[in-house]
């Protein structure tokens, strides 16, 4: 019997590669699109001998609507894009081009192929400095270009749903973590920074006082939510995905073990992220399965994956976030800075 086909954009990346794993387990053939700028072939190495997993190394903006790769596909899971938050302040055009227009290219390919469902990887950063727990109908208030680009990509997806009748659902991901998270490039998520510092025996660079909390959700739980959003008959829906149990950065440090050095709190970032997941648990029956302590232990067991990652120091972080502080600080800027 012919296997159903799913497209996973960004499938050699962090969450995308976990999506590929789940789809293979569920009997899908998977076509992966990834330009390998943020993703890595090693994330798919365990599928190397599987002829049902095919990697297409291309930029999502290079696809035309009639591209043969999409023909016969049942679902499209769209993770591809630029995920680093801090550098978006310096490179807004690149972020808008990739995260918005790249999404439009994928929507057109999905529309031409007549796919059964397009599931968009949105970001909880669209809520900005939100009230918590945060529901899907919370006002939208992006604080930086990354957040704006991800929200506008989501708007494009729902526009294609409204105008072209493309079946679309969107998952607003809170603080995803897990194995295979990015180990190279710009200053980024707390796990990548801390794991490399742990390997080097250096203090963890804790932003602020470490009491800020994040709704950490393990990557395999995120993948399960995406599959549920694809398989449901519902469409045109937005779903928050988080564990619903915010954890402090100090708790993460406690689990990792080690010394701490404190660096200034960044403007434009919330003290707490906390997903109200009532909608997805009620409508799709999804529930997170990986407790935070178990997820952290799983990552630590694979800590060697971060051995070649950048080693961030208070000085290099200050340099990487200089523009961020200049643009997002509440302090008045000089005319020359405006």
UniProtKB/TrEMBL annotation:
Span of domain NAD-dependent epimerase/dehydratase: 7-242
InterPro entries: Epimerase_deHydtase, NAD(P)-bd_dom_sf
EC numbers: 5.1.3.2
One Pfam assignment: Epimerase
Keyword annotations: Isomerase
Family to which this protein belongs: Belongs to the NAD(P)-dependent epimerase/dehydratase family.
Protein's recorded name: UDP-glucose 4-epimerase
